[in-house]
Amino acid sequence: MATHTITVNIRFCETDALGHVSNTSYFIYLEEARIRMFEELGYGSNIKDWCFILASAKCDFVNQAFFGQRLKIETNVARIGNKSFQFVHRILDEKTGTLIALGEATTVYFNFQTQKSEPIPEYLRKQLERYLISELNEVTKKE
């Protein structure tokens, strides 16, 4: 099983009045991780080539993060259905490995012309299977 990994530097504008990273910023980090993974799977910057729509997203906040920290975001696939698949993310402090947050996102293969979901093509299914975990608790361990 492969794990897709990116790093993110926390910017001052991503913090809130309490001094820690705002809850809304985590969803931006998770989106960035998914976009970079799609790029690795061969989807370039031409958004017209993309056939994905986000059906749901969730984030569990485990520890605080602060301006100046560098975060590592690990992404795997937890489930591949007929028309949708589920990403799971771990956000860690890059230096210490401390778990900061856990994320999930369900993505639907979608035809924007017909405005309907479609079965995931076999070539994409094969690519996603490289990142497929055998058990969800492999990623969601709260250390």
What would you say this structure looks like, in words?
The chain has 143 residues and is α+β, with helices and mostly antiparallel strands. The chain contains 2 helices and 6 strands. Strands 1, 2, 3, 4, 5 and 6 form a 6-stranded antiparallel β-sheet that branches. A hairpin with a 3-residue loop joins strand 3 and strand 4 (84-93). It is globular. The mean pLDDT is 93.
Task: Pick out its properties.
single chain, 143 residues, 4-hydroxybenzoyl-CoA_TE, Thioesterase domain-containing protein
Structural class: alpha+beta
What is the H level of CATH, i.e. the homologous superfamily? Hotdog Thioesterase
The end-to-end span amounts to 21 Å
Assembly form of the protein: single chain
Basic shape: globular
Q: Rg from C-alpha positions?
A: 16 Å
Number of helices: 2
List the helices and strands and how they pair.
Elements: E1 4-9, H1 23-40, E2 52-61, E3 70-80, E4 84-93, E5 99-111, E6 116-117, H2 122-129
Antiparallel strand pairs: 1-3, 2-5, 3-4, 4-5, 5-6
GO molecular function: fatty acyl-CoA hydrolase activity
Family: Belongs to the 4-hydroxybenzoyl-CoA thioesterase family.
Organism: Saccharococcus caldoxylosilyticus
